[in-house]
What does this fold into?
Amino acid sequence: MTDQGFPAADIDTSNPHPARMYDFYLGGKDHYEVDRAAASNVVSVFPSIKTCAQVNRLFMHRATRWLAAEAGIRQFLDIGTGIPTEPNLHQIAQDVAPDARIVYADNDPIVLTHARTLLRSTAEGRTAYIHADVREPESILTATELHATLDLNRPVALSLNAVLHFVPDEFKPYDLVAALVDALPSGSYLVLSHCTGDFAPETWEKIADVYRRGGIPAQVRSAGEIARFFDGLELLEPGLEVPHRWKPDPGQPLTDVTDAEASFYTGVARKP
Ligand SMILES: C[S@@+](CC[C@H](N)C(=O)[O-])C[C@H]1O[C@@H](n2cnc3c(N)ncnc32)[C@H](O)[C@@H]1O
It folds into this structure.
């Protein structure tokens, strides 16, 4: 057991893991040789993968800040959290609203080993971590930590950032997103970012292949396929957009990247 009562993690260093490859792209230190090798293969076909990861992360910052500051959201459920990278979602939300409550979930044991960082909440707010797989939404929706931290009768911002491209169609990703959104009340939000091959189709098929060869399920999607995740919800302005044009903040870096460098679609929608 870890000092927080989580089971000790079983870190697999024989296969690359998406959380650790993403950590490599973001310049972190929590990855292994096998992750560096796979990530380097991605860099060789798509040198701007690091930019792509950064603009996605900056979208998360802006969307979270907007939800806390403009929409008054005080509860967040972030699935596919990733290895902590400052600022983490709770730090952004609690910077606006110290009483904000955040539940994180990820299925990678390495994220579990870093849960302590994610649990450093303000005194007024609260954070929790669930080791769970987004492909099993019930395991998240029935988790004790979720109900001890969030009141599902009040609006929640559900974020699924850079995770659904690890859920190919055979796992019925539209059904599982619907199951998660169905569990939230009116006035909740869905925040989503997703890799796309729309701007460089051949390159992105090669990238998906690198992941699949490493044993990681992967599927990039078109704008139309990503827009379907928002069915039944009210997409906020500017709609489904590349990250650098989703409510851009001139104070942030990387405002002038090309759409192909970003190769992501992002959106935030409200549940009516
Ligand atoms: C590219 S990172 C994104 C991190 C963060 N959401 C962000 O956008 O900056 C993808 C994360 O999704 C997690 N992930 C992948 N498949 C998952 C699954 N089936 N269930 C839960 N998490 C998953 C990975 O472990 C990794 O931490």
